Amino acid sequence: MAEQRWNARDGRGAGEGARGSRDARRRDVPDDVARAWDELVATARRTVADGLVVGTSGNVSVRVGDTVLVTPTGVPYDRLTPDDVTGVDLSGRQVLGTLRPTSELPVHLAIHTTTDARAVVHTHAVHATAVSTLVRELPLIHYMSAALGGPVRVAPYATYGTPELAENMLHALTERTACLLQNHGTITYGTTLTEAYDRTAQLEWMCRVWLTASSVPGLSPTLLTHDQLTEVGERLRGYGQPG
Fold first, then answer.
1. What is the largest CA-CA distance in the chain?
2. Is the overall model pTM greater than 0.90, yes or no?
3. pLDDT in tens, 158-176
4. Active site residue 16
């Protein structure tokens, strides 16, 4: 009650006082970093809401200049606040925050330092993970494979958080913006968090379509040819609104 009376004398409610304290801490980071962190947290929460991850599995990163903001390890996304900004430089040295970065930091840094990625999304999506245990490449079940650069490869299994996994992943991502990680999940990247997330959702959908079609007894799904996929790739270059 004493705190509430003090806030009343100060002309602020308790909630407003908390916001003021938070905003003061937010001023410790540049506005573009604060905005990127908010978008990163929203994207991470969306992976949970859309059923692409369970608990604290999966992780998200976004690059702002030479700083890579990442989800911290072992923290449920609904508990992350604007004050929990977690960031590393391109060598992996922590430069923002006190929470430890995701254990999958090597795969994020591998992508950010070898591609034009500005955002990376990693999930344990159910259908995509199932497909990763069955094949070495997602069969050409749908033409949207072309939007990911071509047939989606499966990176050979390696223990999570290791340089070996990052290396296997980079090979699978050659000329691609998405791949499956064997017995593990998905990894996609893009120029924005929205683009990276959309690619993750598209990959999970294609995996679900293939698993569904393949489960019909006595029938096998019709697959696209590489020539058909190449034709789609050409058409996709002019897809969407100009500018």
1. 77
2. no
3. 999 999 999 999 999 999 9
4. no
Contact 58, 52 (CB under 8 A): yes
Q: Which amino acid is at 6?
A: W
Q: How far is CA 179 from the centre of its chain?
A: 12
Q: Check 3, 16, 39, 104 and give the catalytic one.
A: 104
Integer distance in angstroms from the first to the last C-alpha of the chain?
Answer: 56
Tokens at 106, concatenated: 């090597």
Are the C-beta atoms of residues 49 and 123 closer than 8 Å to each other? no
